[in-house]
Specification:
The chain is 24% helix and 25% strand. With 359 residues, the chain is of the alpha+beta class. The two termini are 28 Å apart.
Length: 359
């Protein structure tokens, strides 16, 4: 998922047309038989929900699935709330929207001033999906954008910036299930503020192997005097974010992640490999250093993931949890994560505050 090297940037208050938007289609990917009211505690504090005032013929049919939600200063129309997105477990579009409404205060700081790539599933996880990298032409004017000039096209494209619950919910209502963030933010998208270690298991590797590889990485980072923070990818992998101060380039960060990965692969050759080509092959855990490139994107903290059976969440963890081996990604469902955040707070918060530099 690459937006090639940049490089003309400008802040836009309103969306400009994005003619020629390229979409990439994929086959099915990666579901809690309870009514919505039992799965989530709604509505959120300081958020109001108003039922739409459609004509009476439609009211009987649409009252439960078409609403206007007041989110801050913006009203967002949400529709087809009863559409089943995960057929195996009955999890609906309404459940997706309610999850994002509740998690927004925790999730939005990670998206502030940072472009996102969205994975959209208009018919749920068993239907076709595509990655959306630029702002749709019909997006409301109040959604923020950054103008970005890829090398491969002749015109700038508007990248979505999601810093409000209204923006998050607007895209979720369009069918976006997954939100993936860039490793850099405005005003300079060529300057990363994260070093990202993407740990992917081969098809014959278990999550225990990924957990072990992450712990070995943790030891290496501690020896280097650098703090890293783990989260699940939402699938079988793990991400370790190393927050950085100003002054880094993607080339420097990518080379550093690669060097750390090479040392780990040399020390633990039966466990860890440096990514070359596909990252889900074999029986080892790969470290994909190429994620640290301009325009590459990684699952945002607290985003849903389209697991084929039920929704999972890219969830921050503690190193102690990984060491104890008590957490499995499949257990981190939306309700479990909401309860977890209520109990533990945001474990990833230091990522927003650290100011580290790599050698």
């Amino acid at each position: 998922m690459v937006f090639e090297d940049s490089i003309s940037l400008a802040f836009l208050a309103c969306c400009t047309s994005s003619k020629g938007r390229q979409r990439q289609w994929y086959n099915r990917m990666g579901g809690i038989y309870k009514p919505v009211s039992e799965r989530f505690n709604l509505p959120m504090k300081n958020s109001k929900i108003y039922h739409s005032t459609n004509n009476r013929e439609k009211d009987a049919r649409m009252n439960a699935s078409s609403e206007t939600w007041q989110l801050g200063n913006q009203s967002v129309q949400v529709t087809h709330l009863e559409k089943v997105y995960w057929p195996q477990t009955g999890f609906t579009k309404g459940d997706v929207l309610h999850y994002y409404q509740q998690i927004a205060p925790v999730a939005l700081p990670y998206l502030k001033d940072r472009p996102v790539t969205l994975r959209v599933y208009p018919q749920g996880v068993e239907g076709a999906s595509y990655y959306l990298r630029d702002c749709p032409e019909d997006a409301p004017d109040w959604l923020r954008r950054a103008s970005y000039q890829p090398k491969t096209v002749s015109h700038p494209v508007p990248l979505p910036l999601l810093d409000t619950a209204a923006g998050l919910l607007w895209f979720a209502n369009q069918g976006a299930i997954e939100f993936h963030l860039w490793g850099s933010h405005l005003p300079d998208l060529t300057q990363p503020d994260l070093a990202i270690f993407d740990l992917d298991p081969g098809e014959a590797a278990s999550f225990d192997a990924v957990r072990e590889a992450a712990l070995r990485l943790h030891e290496a980072l501690e020896q280097a005097g650098v703090r890293g923070y783990p989260k699940t990818s939402g699938g079988e992998g793990l991400h370790v974010f190393v927050p950085l101060g100003a002054g880094h380039t993607f080339e420097r960060v990518r080379a550093w992640v690669k060097a750390v990965g090479q040392r780990l692969a040399s020390s633990y050759p039966d466990l860890i490999a440096l990514a070359r080509g596909g990252t889900h092959r074999g029986d080892r855990v790969t470290i994909d250093y190429a994620q640290n490139s301009v325009g590459r994107n990684t699952a945002s903290p607290y985003t849903l993931r389209a697991h084929p059976v039920h929704p999972t969440v890219s969830t921050p963890l503690t190193w102690a949890e990984l060491d104890a081996g008590t957490i499995h990604p499949a257990d981190l469902t939306p309700q479990a994560v909401l309860e977890r955040v209520g109990r533990l707070g945001d474990l990833f918060a230091p990522v927003l505050q650290a100011d580290q530099h790599i050698a």
